[in-house]
Specification:
By secondary structure, the protein is an all-alpha fold. It is built from 9 helices and no strands.
């Protein structure tokens, strides 16, 4: 029986590879969009405009304080009632980008706030504009504390992407659910699902650890 299940699982490998590609595509697009939005919001979150800080803070609290699955359902099932029709792939990317941006926003804001105010004051005295201060003085220093948790957030993004299978995105998890209906050996099927996620996340985990060690060495030297 186990031999039969194993052979069936081998025959299902092309489907799992397609699911792997879908997971990488959804995660990759969400990573890019979430990073850009998160950095922009993080900069404003750490800025002096109280109104923007309040609005962004409320958005961050709302996204981080509600279940991600509920957010996915709202985007995919509720928005069409407002005339906004979205395919499952598009809804998944929007939901994941929104979630990722909210966490990256806080990471970036914390990194910027951690830079000593004396750096900005010295840059102002040197005649640098606010944008020049941010680009040449603040962000390069903030990146030392931003990079390790940022890469760690990318790992969480890949794992959170499994939730979008609930709206029909044929990612690794969805392929696993479809396969286990033919091969009633859940441990074998979802063991493979776990290995495929691990194959994506492991390089990111190593990168996060390397960056953390690297930034610690640089901070010690400084």
């Amino acid at each position: 029986m186990w031999g039969f299940y194993f052979n069936e699982l081998i025959r299902s490998l092309p489907s799992f590879l397609e699911g792997l590609w879908m997971t990488v595509a959804v995660s990759g697009l969400s990573l890019l969009a979430g990073t850009v939005i998160g950095f922009i919001c993080g900069i404003f979150r750490a800025g002096k405009n109280r109104i923007l800080r309040t609005i962004i803070g409320a958005w961050v609290d709302l996204i981080r304080g509600t279940p991600f699955l509920v957010q996915v359902f709202i985007i995919f099932f509720i928005l069409p009632s407002a005339g906004i029709e979205l395919e499952a792939f598009s809804a998944a990317v929007i939901a994941l980008s929104n979630l990722t941006a909210s966490f990256i926003c806080e990471i970036v804001a914390s990194g910027i706030i951690a830079v000593p105010k004396g750096q900005s004051e010295a840059a102002t005295a040197a005649g640098l504009s606010p944008f020049q201060q941010l680009w040449y003085i603040v962000l390069p220093q903030a990146m030392r504390s931003i990079l390790p948790p940022l890469v760690g957030q990318y790992v969480l993004l890949v794992k959170d992407s499994s939730v979008v299978s609930a709206i029909g995105v044929v990612d690794i998890t969805r392929v696993g659910w479809l396969t286990v209906q033919r091969i009633p050996e859940g441990l074998m099927v979802f063991g493979l699902v776990g290995l495929l996620y691990f194959a994506i996340c492991y390089p990111l985990i190593n990168l996060s650890g390397y960056l953390e060690r690297r930034m610690t060495v640089v901070s010690t030297k400084l």
